[in-house]
Amino acid sequence: MKSVSSNLCTVVNNRLLPFLFVTIFSSVACKKTLEGSKAVTNHNTPTEQKTLAALATTFNVANNSQLNTAMAAAVSGDKIILANGTYTGFTVTKSGITIQAANKGSAVVSSGIIRLSKVSSVTVQGLKITTAGSTQTVDGESFPVAVWFEASNSCRLAGSTVTLSGQASGTQWVMLSGNSNNNRVDHNEFGPNSVKGHYIFVRGNRTGITVPADRTDWANGNGPNNPNMARNTRIDHNYFHDMAASTGEIMVLGGIGVAGDYQLTNTLVESNLFVNCDGDAEIISIKSSSNTVRTNTFRTSVGTISSRAGNNNTISGNLMLQAGKTGTGGIKIYEKNHIVTGNYVDNPQDYGFVLGAGDSYTSSNFSHAQVFNASVTNNIWINLNTRGVIIGHGSNDMLPPTGCTFSNNALRGSASTLLDLRLPGNTVFSNNTTSGSNPAMPGTPLTTSDTGPGSYSY
Asked: Quick one: signal sequence residues (predicted)?
């Protein structure tokens, strides 16, 4: 069994299974120092392992020295609790541990980075992260970063307040890179920000991937698998706010060009709150495949949810309450097999929806791919008072949407053209309405009571 730190006596109580042989810790054992502790090689039966898990050590630390010592001694199942105070960033190389603030938001990481390096099942929770970050080599490229999931699996950043200070231009607040799988970023607060960068960047490694001059075959699903992409990331119940103009998208899913556009990354962005996120014409920029953006609430945020590159993305059940703010929009899609359904967009100043026209994959002026087989159904756009919904827009070659459906949607407002069929191609339109009273909002908007650290407990 493990010894415990000098400032903590582990209490052994009724968690022990009565039918197992149990070594009772004496008061002397409870006083063993951290320096003298040793992790036991695990040769136990599954039942014994469960019992040992019940005896996992909790390390209470109050400064960087104690934190570093605890990090070196911790093994899977252990918990490190940071007292109120200021700390330097840290690198986690042990799987299965939890690092948390004793009091949510009162343990402050004010310098360095938090790096989860090739680990699994690590949770970091309840911290306040104000660091400027530092420049790291991520996936073969140089990035300033504050929190970095490096080829890690089933890890979590939760219940934390991320509000960087003094960071360099281009800093990625949270980066998930390489062969990272099944990680979660949830119940955090991000913002405010006035420096170029992204709150979250879910990407991968394009190094060593030879991309074709003509991407057609890859776009049709015949490209190679890139093993070094972050996949199955869940981003939920975060509060994103106050991203200043011209600073960047709130988050990018993919964003490494053709090496990542057609990778099935399966990122799930759900139940987040976005308020005054004005950094770019794309609030969420999707540049990979098989992702889902659903049940989020957007308030007065410039730009759109944009499926910019990649296939098979779903945008559903989002509430976009834009209040006529200049530059606000709705949803924009390009490329193949997307689903847009059940969204509610109220009073955007720019387009409520764009079904894009596109460019040939072989075009020297390629910018946006032609749309194929999109399904746009059961959405509500109200107070479209400046611009409406546009079908066929935004490319150099102006190739029309092909094989798309636009059905059972409601469009309301005073714009001169609510449904602008600029270049509809063979899109099938059915059961859409442009008159009558405004349909009811199909859900309840999220608030800060539902998202961010205030909605999280541990």
From this structure: none
Q: Do 122 and 150 contact (CB within 8 A), yes or no?
A: no
Q: Is 168 in contact with 143 (CB distance < 8 Å)?
A: no
Those residues whose C-beta lies under 8 Å from the C-beta of residue 208, and which sit 6 or more positions away, are none
Phi/psi of residue 408, nearest 5 degrees: 60, 35
User: CB-hemisphere CA count at 13 Å for 290?
Assistant: 12
Question: What would the two tokens of residue 374 be?
Answer: 């999109």
The Cα 201–Cα 285 span in angstroms is: 10
Peptide bond into 192 cis (omega under 30): yes
CB 304 within 8 A of CB 281: yes
Of 299, 239, 308, give the one whose Cα is nearest residue 275. Answer: 299
Report the distance separating Cα 320 and Cα 175, nearest Å: 26
User: What pLDDT does 102 receive?
Assistant: 98
What is the rounded distance in angstroms from the CA atom of residue 388 to the CA atom of residue 7? 64
Are 334 and 353 in contact by the 8 Å Cβ rule? The answer is no
Q: What is the DSSP letter of 235?
A: E
The separation between the first and the last C-alpha atoms of the chain, rounded to the nearest angstrom, is 26
427-449 as b/e: b if 16+ CB within 10 A: beeeebebeeeeeeeeeeebeee
The residue among 252, 372, 357 whose CA lies nearest residue 312 is: 372
| CATH code for the part of the protein at 93-455 | 2.160.20.10
- Bridge partners of 204, per DSSP, are 229
Where do the structural domains in the chain lie, given as residue ranges?
A: 93-455
Q: Are 318 and 341 in contact (CB under 8 A)?
A: no
Total length of the chain: 458
Q: Which residue has the higher pLDDT, 264 or 213?
A: 264
pLDDT in tens, 91-150: 999 999 999 999 999 999 999 999 999 999 999 999 999 999 999 999 999 999 999 999
